[in-house]
Amino acid sequence: MSAEIIALIVFAGVFAVSAIRNVHMGALALVAAFVVGIGFVGEGLDEILAAFPVDTLLILLGITYLFGMARETGTIDWLVDRSVRLVGPRVSLLPWAMWLIGTGVACLGTSHAAFAVVPIAMSLATTHRISPTLMGIAMSSAIVGGALAPTSINGITVATIAEDTGLPYNAGLMFVLSVGVNALVVLAAFLMFGGPELIRRSRQDTASGDPGSATGTLSSSTGTLSSGTGTMAMTDTTTAQPITRIQVTVLCTLFVLVAGFFTLTVLDVDVNLGVVALTLAVILSLLVPDVGRRAMSKVDWGTILLLGGIMTYVGVLTRLGAIDQLGELARSVNIPLIAAIVICVIAGLVSAFASTIGILGALIPLAVPLLMPGGGLEMTGFIYALAISASLVDCAPFSTTGATIVASAAEQERPLLSKRLTAWGFAMVLIGPAATIITMVLPPLLLAG
């Protein structure tokens, strides 16, 4: 048995053992990377750890630490309070509003900037009794949908790959298709995870004239949220709490994070969002050390280890050539349409654990023979289907996007949210390719035939 097959079997075993024995998957994957890398591939420790995603983990650390500061200072509560007053009884619009905001921010140079919106969205979900799964999928769809904009790094990268390989590509059409597909994904999640109930609640609250429905209170003495029956409630008699100086400082910090990162990206300055967020969090902790110490407990180290372990093992698979072999296997299929579906499924499956752009960079060139004249898929929307299929799975907690969403949720919600996002992500591995191939590849083939 080849080393590539052994490595893939071990990778599958990591998931099985983690599920059966309830062992932390990240720690298990990291140990498996050492065993396979050293024992079967003959790599050194430095080579194995080269794939440890320090940049990605810095993003998780910086974002969760900074927003831990925002939570501890009551800034998130203040934002939630104001959002409740603005939304009133229209709570069913919140997932869509956050999706639109997240999509817009993700278009601004890098989708990572939209990670700054995720903790606010997840806090709103808890406050308004919105399913965290619904809000998580909405934010994931916003991030991956906006990421393929012509102004975003991912969109620019796909366009560059297409140009280098000589494939026809329209950046504007790519963005429209990406946003459209992700809007349908949010709609499906809305219908499956409590959207109709939110609409009924909105209508009842509107009819009663009470935007809060007496589900809880906002403490006038502390300015913090109390859960009442598990949600936040606002009544017409509650008095808006004045914003404190430290909350103003934190709000300015969050603005600097988003606006500053966007500006640096436009100026083509290479900077890690996590480094910026971590720097701002440290500055805040110097102003309020006690809050800084409490905020450190908000960092989801378990999710960081999960992402680090999985991506390190995927690095071993990549260097071993297992990923390339999967692509070659797809190309060996004699029917181009089936080969296209196989490549999209592989892209989605691997992208759930590794860099989406990295996977596209590897698989688009492998698909070139299918897309050239005589290859069976000439002048079709395959490249659009491939890019979207690889992106839809990013809600899984093994990806940076999914990990950020889970880390931003309330602690008691994380286990169930992680399971649901995992199931949703793996469902997208099959649903995404099927839907995109049927809508973007098959029609041109039928018209041409």
From TrEMBL:
The keyword Lipid metabolism does not apply. This is Na+/H+ antiporter NhaD. InterPro entries: Diverse_Ion_Transporter, MatC_N. It comes from the Bacteria. Residues 1-146 form the Dicarboxylate carrier MatC N-terminal domain. Residues 212-231 have a biased composition (Low complexity). The chain crosses the membrane at residues 26-42, 49-68, 96-122, 134-153, 173-193, 248-267, 273-292, 304-323, 329-350, 421-442. Pfam families: MatC_N.
